[in-house]
Amino acid sequence: MAKIALFGATGTIGSRVLREALDRGHQVTAVVRDPAKVTEQHPNLTVTTGDVLDPASVTEAARGRDVVVSAVGGGDGPGHLATIEPAAKSLVEGLRALGDEAPRLVAVGGAGSLRTPDGKQVWDAEGLPEFLLQIMHAHGDALDFYRTVSDVRWTNISPAGLIEPGERTGTYRTALDDLVVDADGKSRISAEDYAVALIDEIETPKHVGERFTVGD
């Protein structure tokens, strides 16, 4: 059983991560600005007020935990876009304050910087809307920052090209920097199976200090 501090617990991905972690018997502290927005109830769930953009708040939330999970992303509207890279920097600064007692960081990433079968990157595709491109590049900037960090144990998990609510199958495939595609060239994963992969990584660490990606 892991003690997990979860930022972004009310979002599309974060809420699935919360449910997956609780279903597997982990203790989760959901760190949110507005505790009233967390409607999940479970004996292993604690809800506390905190701000991912405040390093001191990150330090307090992380203290005594085994893992900090950041499910902070830009998919919930333009107001959230500007938090992606600053959140990464705040999380690392907050964890650094704990020194050797700092828990591991597992952060939700983006698919934009992944290599496609034609050797380009996902964000090079024609016709992508500007807002989506901004999210992709913000996640790319956050990943570039994580790759400069050697004193905090971090993992960044990129989803497939398409991630949306769906079925929990419990199966997925992984890669490092290459987009996971199926026989038809499609790249997708349900938010539920993404959560499975994230909790699997917490339970059996395989990608400390690197980015990996998951897809059906």
TrEMBL record:
GO molecular function, one term: oxidoreductase activity, acting on the CH-NH group of donors, NAD or NADP as acceptor
InterPro entries: NAD(P)-bd_dom, NAD(P)-bd_dom_sf, Polyketide_Oxido-like
Record Pfam families: NAD_binding_10
CDD domains listed in its UniProt record: BVR-B_like_SDR_a
Domain NAD(P)-binding, first and last residues per copy: 8-201
UniProt-listed PANTHER family: FLAVIN REDUCTASE (NADPH)
Name of this chain's protein: NAD(P)H-binding protein
